Amino acid sequence: MFVRHMKLLISGLVLLSLTTTGCVYNRYLTNTERSATEQLLISESMHDAVARLEIPAVAGIRTAIEIVSVSTEDEAYLRSLIEQKLRRAGAVIVSGKTAQAVYVVQAGAIGTISREATFGIPSVPLGPGLATPSLPFFRILKQHGYTRLRLAGYDQATGKSLFAGEPVTAQRNFDVYGLFFMVIRQNEIYPGNEIQVTID
């Protein structure tokens, strides 16, 4: 009787393993429109790009800022970074016609890109509703955030060019490499070590 029950139990476990297509627990679930990783890739690359921008002599000058962007989604955050940089250089930030100089921030790119590849044994269909689980041996997920900015300025009264800076490009990365159950993360955005090794 015991042997018969064990055979039934083993048969049930085998059948269950054949019908299981994968783990339903998703550690990367996000409840926001953009994941924290995507937001950090963008904001950190924006910080780097603004830090590299050349700023002309603006001490004591009433200065207005215009943003020319590929998207308005990050415009307010970019404006605050530029305002801080100009204020540290001595500019008096104003708006409208009271400005002596207008500085235009041209955002050629603010966004992310990712590439993913998986190497292993794919899931094999066995029939209606039945499939073997996939077995990934090696996984790569490369995620990059880019910001490209250029700063130019003109005199509000005369329209004469005051400054035309060179474009700067900044990049931040967060790459994930998986080998069976071991995960290696190359981290440039989250607090902690640049290389993180975990068992997932």
Write up this protein.
There is one protein chain. By secondary structure, the chain is an alpha+beta fold. It has a single domain (27-199), classed as 3-Layer(aba) Sandwich (Rossmann fold). The chain is built from three helices and ten strands; from the N terminus they run ααβαβββββββββ. The chain has helices spanning 2-19, 36-52, 75-88, and strands at residues 62-69, 92-93, 101-121, 125-127, 130-131, 135-155, 161-164, 168-179, 182-187, 195-199. The strands form two sheets. Strands 1, 2, 3, 6, 7, 8, 9 and 10 form an eight-stranded mixed sheet that branches. A hairpin with a 2-residue loop joins β4 and β5. The chain starts with a helix and ends with a strand.
Number of helices: 3
The assigned CATH architecture is 3-Layer(aba) Sandwich
Stretches with pLDDT under 50, minimum 5 residues: 16-26
- Portion of residues within helices: 10-25%
Distance between the termini: 40 Å
Structural class: alpha+beta
Radius of gyration: 27 Å
Q: How would you sum up the major sheet?
A: 8 strands, mixed
Order of helices and strands: HHEHEEEEEEEEE
Strand runs, count: 10
As for the number of domains, it is 1
Label the overall shape.
Answer: elongated
Overall mean pLDDT? 86
CATH fold-level name:
Rossmann fold
What fraction of residues sit in β-strands?
Answer: 35-45%
Q: Which class in CATH terms?
A: Alpha Beta
Helix and strand arrangement:
Blueprint: H1 2-19, H2 36-52, E1 62-69, H3 75-88, E2 92-93, E3 101-121, E4 125-127, E5 130-131, E6 135-155, E7 161-164, E8 168-179, E9 182-187, E10 195-199
Parallel strand pairs: 1-2, 1-3
Antiparallel strand pairs: 3-6, 4-5, 6-7, 6-8, 8-9, 9-10
Helix pairs in contact: 2-3
